[in-house]
């Protein structure tokens, strides 16, 4: 089977735990792209922290960002698909965060906003800098000029377990997902990596059986199950491995490289 479209998650999948993209992985991806296969990074990151990785690999084209809430063409920065959420529905979640001292941010496709941006702690600034993000001060809802696509909370794992349990009891207007051990995202009910990948594949005229996806976490489940071949990383939770067609090496052992060599070279 020649796969025409390959979707790669970034954190915990494409890059290692030191946020490094290995040369061996880059060379393997380039070989496959030269064969005519379209490579799409499909990530919870924003475009500004995804495009540099595309450039490092030597690719251009589409990226699926914000866990599927926004698809962007890197060649012209056009937004080709966007799932805008209702900001007023976030108010009860923001109240909860204030009462429980939980850090949150609000994302449009190209910008990230926090309350008290100028007074963020060094720890928070270091976290954002890892993802090449410069937070802006959160305005009122009426002052947003672009759609809001994602609301993210960040806290230690044990605190987030309680947040997730509490919010799971609420009537859900949003798609709530655990996008990492230290992150919970709220998005439009229909937004997911799988939905965005399905839309992109349809736009490109590529059937699901010719789509391959590689990921490592719960936010990758929808794209792993949509793709004709879904591959989980060795560092994935058991539930993610169970949903995949195959399991490759960990992100620290060039698992993406191993999977691509096995199925595409």
From TrEMBL:
Transmembrane segments: none annotated. The lineage of its organism: Bacteria, Bacillati, Bacillota, Bacilli, Bacillales. It comes from the Bacteria. It comes from Paenibacillus segetis. InterPro entries: Cof (IPR000150), HAD-like_sf (IPR036412), HAD-SF_hydro_IIB (IPR006379), HAD_sf (IPR023214). This is Sugar phosphate phosphatase.
